[in-house]
Amino acid sequence: MLCKKYQEQLRWVIYQIYPRSFMDSNGDGIGDLQGIIQKLDYLKDLGVNAVWICPCYKSPNDDNGYDISDYRDIMDEFGTMEDMDALITALHARGMKLIMDLVPNHTSTSHRWFQESRKGKDNPYSDFYYWFDEIPNDWESEFRGSAWEYDPVRGQYYLHSFAVSQADLNWNNPAVVKAMQDTVDFWIEKGVDGFRIDVIDMISKDFSKEYNGFGPRLHEFIHDLFGREKAAHLFTVGESDVHDINEMIRHCAADRGELSTLFLFDHMECGRIDKFTPKQDSLKTLRNHLIHWQQETEKYDLLHSLFTDNHDQPPMISRIGNDREKRYEAATVMAAMLYLLKGVPFIYQGQEIGMPAANYDRIDCFDDIESVNTYKEFCKTMTPEEALRKINFGSRDNARHPMAWSNGANGGFSTGKPWIALHSRYQEINVEGDLAADRSVYRFYQALLALRRSNDAFLNGDLEVISSADDPYFIFARKLGNERWVVVCNFESEQQIKLPFQCEKPSLANLNREAIDGKYASYECAVAKCILRSPAATVAVCERPVCGINGRIFIRKFSSGG
Ligand code: TEU
Ligand code: CA
């Protein structure tokens, strides 16, 4: 059973906002905090009760806010600290929470700490960063090139795991730990309810290793930040390169005093060989990853995070779903197979209207530092057309276009010229249009979230996987006490499905189903409450899937027992 704190946090439904592209309130073409405030009722109606905002601190914006120059001030383009206070008040007034993005691994080189540090070895900030006379290893920057940069002012090399202007902090210096604790406390005092922590695995390093992360003091440092009484109530989700359940236990077990949960990335490789190379794939791959992590986290009473999209990734619907003729169906079935599992749902802006990848077709549409650097790198070995095709597939800007609120001027995002090109399909796909459509992705999300929050089985219930690993669909149940719900998610091809137990009329379906059994169209899904006829049936367990393929019904083993 999950601990009390995690049971409470299971009720959080978190909407991720990329502030630069969400809503512009003053016509300068850049999203801002007042713009977010304008849209809070839209979010509340959707059924979310928390927002995570990507970094909105002072920043020169080389990596759109992930290069912070002051952790205690707001980026000019986004507004002021008064706007932030107003946002916190507006959220709390609606019973909603705020999760800030904390970036503890690096600061901008314009941060005062770095400006002082580079002055020399006698400076009080001298050891805030890693300085070396000789490059100690061949680590590379995530954004291409060496991770080491020579600073002529100091006459030494410093580490930057990301852009040259994002210098890695030296956490072995107790003053850095203290500065970051003070940062966390500053925001706790402002009233924030949690943090998403950027590349948490990188804050402790071992320079003799091949990989920059998971150093010997990682857990000590996480504990220093969040194991304190002051931080005990927070919801914390760490972005980390964890692929192993034991590592997740070390981060998230209730008695560790570290994090509530992690973002795990195994499933994010669906539909691609590497970040810029697509691969033919199916929802099956996603399903199998999801099941694996569900079962692992359930076994060890860990809180899981449920997401497929964020600001670093082209939308999943465009990679393994269908973002053309079956866009509505694919967007909704993917929501059902993800958000009715056990964990904290994260919805990325635009996902709730089934927004596909931006699909820019000119290199000058791209702004992202990773995309721009990688394009240059690719052009050394391939034609510009080929390089553009790859960038177009993998670019982070696929998720960073202005939110399409309407088909009007600038997609209703701004009265001025947006900082980045509009989505290539904003006239076809936008909030206003989706809300008015017969088949609205938003309305489906809304109904799904309402169903989830009003039935405890979807929160704390156990997961029963009913379909098998080869089936071209995903059938699962959530069970709590004597309540049991079944979720049928069909994948690409049409299927005949018959369950070995009876259900009420579906409470949720993307294509108006009248009954849970029967023929399922491509990407059709339905959710229904199971009818439990006798006390014995309440403990009935499906050992192997009972599946109908092309009209033939296979009943494998159906046993009752504890
Ligand atoms: O991303 C870190 C991360 O995991 C990278 O490996 C990620 O794949 C990156 O986007 C390269 O494609 C976090 C943030 O989410 C990202 O936006 C920042 O650029 C990065 O940290 C540096 O702060
Ligand atoms: Ca603005």
Which terms summarize this structure?
five-stranded antiparallel β-sheet, 28 strands, single chain, binds 1-O-alpha-D-glucopyranosyl-D-fructose, binds calcium ion, 562 residues, eight-stranded parallel β-sheet
Task: Please give the structural blueprint.
Elements: H1 4-9, E1 14-17, H2 33-38, H3 40-46, E2 50-53, E3 57-58, E4 70-74, H4 81-93, E5 97-102, E6 106-108, H5 112-117, E7 131-132, E8 148-151, E9 156-159, E10 166-168, H6 174-190, E11 194-197, H7 218-226, E12 235-239, H8 245-252, E13 261-263, E14 272-274, E15 277-278, H9 283-299, E16 305-306, H10 316-320, H11 327-339, E17 344-348, H12 369-379, H13 384-394, H14 431-436, H15 441-454, H16 456-460, E18 462-465, E19 473-480, E20 483-490, E21 495-497, E22 508-509, E23 518-520, E24 525-529, E25 540-542, E26 547-549, E27 552-554, E28 558-560
Parallel strand pairs: 1-2, 1-17, 2-5, 5-11, 11-12, 12-13, 16-17
Antiparallel strand pairs: 3-4, 6-10, 7-9, 8-9, 14-15, 18-19, 19-20, 20-24, 21-23, 22-24, 25-28, 26-27
Helix pairs in contact: 6-7, 11-15, 12-13
Bound molecules: 1-O-alpha-D-glucopyranosyl-D-fructose and calcium ion.
Strand content: 15-25%
Bound molecules: 1-O-alpha-D-glucopyranosyl-D-fructose, calcium ion
Name the helicity range.
Answer: 25-40%
As laid out across the biggest beta sheet, the strand order is 13-12-11-5-2-1-17-16
Structural class: alpha/beta
Termini gap: 17 Å
Radius of gyration, in Å, reads 24 Å
Number of continuous helical runs: 16
Q: Return residue spans where pLDDT drops below 50 for at least 5 consecutive residues.
A: 537-562
- Indicate the overall shape: globular
Number of strands: 28
The profile of the biggest β sheet is: 8 strands, parallel
What is the typical, i.e. mean, pLDDT? 94
